[in-house]
Design brief:
It is a single chain. The protein has two domains: about 120 residues, no CATH class; about 70 residues, Thrombin, subunit H. Strands 1, 2, 5, 6, 13 and 14 form a six-stranded mixed sheet that branches. Strands 7-12-9 form a three-stranded antiparallel sheet, with no helix packed on it. The protein is globular, with a radius of gyration of 17 Å. The protein is about 5% helix and about 35% strand. A hairpin with a 3-residue loop joins strand 10 and strand 11. It is mainly beta.
Length: about 200
């Protein structure tokens, strides 16, 4: 099995991100695939540079870090957003975290998922959802992400809470950073309504 960590350790991990980002952090969005590590130079084209709050976020909870307000900014190039980097400045030379950008999408369940289970069922469309995308909806715990997907089902990282997920419920899939469309046009206002980072090892 994969190594698992206590909630305390995971929460401390997220607290370190806030500390390391300092007072002038930026969310940078690029085209293409994410570099191999945070220490690897950025690849692709820089699409947008968004100033973050100081501090970047309040106290994390249960290994989930939710950013404070991120200032909107105009796209500086045309392109399809592929990945994001959290950096200590707009220069992007010191990277604290990085991840993938996804377009927001929704699916409607085709069966009840009872509390304590972690598989959602759909008539179709699950094949377009990829491992690592976030999952949100009624009675789905915050910070839940996709572990596996088929054309008709999604396996989640957390079990459904009391009350279950009803047949016919709308489920939203995205990422740490999601947009209605990932195709950016130069001059377009880029806004991030919410941004969460979830510590691994639960």
């Amino acid at each position: 099995m994969s190594i698992q960590y206590s909630t305390t350790h995971r929460t401390n991990n997220m607290t370190d991100i806030v500390t390391d980002l300092g007072s002038t952090s930026y969310l940078l969005i690029y085209t293409g695939s994410a570099p191999a590590t945070c220490g690897t130079a950025a690849s692709g084209t820089l699409l947008a540079s968004l100033p973050c709050s100081n501090p970047f976020a309040g106290a994390p909870a249960s290994g989930v870090l939710t950013a404070s307000a991120i200032t909107s900014a105009a796209a500086v190039a045309n392109g399809t957003a592929g990945y994001w980097r959290l950096c200590t400045s707009s220069a992007g030379t010191t990277v604290i975290a990085q991840g993938l950008v996804y377009a927001t999408s929704t699916l409607v369940t085709s069966a009840l998922t009872a509390a304590g289970n972690n598989v959602l069922t759909f008539a179709s469309g699950g094949g377009a959802i990829v491992v690592g995308q976030t999952v949100s909806g009624t009675n789905i715990p915050a910070g839940t992400y996709v572990l596996a997907s088929t054309a008709t089902s999604i396996t989640m990282s957390a079990n459904v809470a009391t009350g279950g997920v009803a047949n016919g419920a709308t489920i939203t899939f995205g990422g740490d950073v999601s947009f209605p469309s990932v195709a950016f046009t130069i001059g377009e206002t880029i806004s991030v309504s919410s941004f969460t980072v979830t510590a691994t090892g639960a």
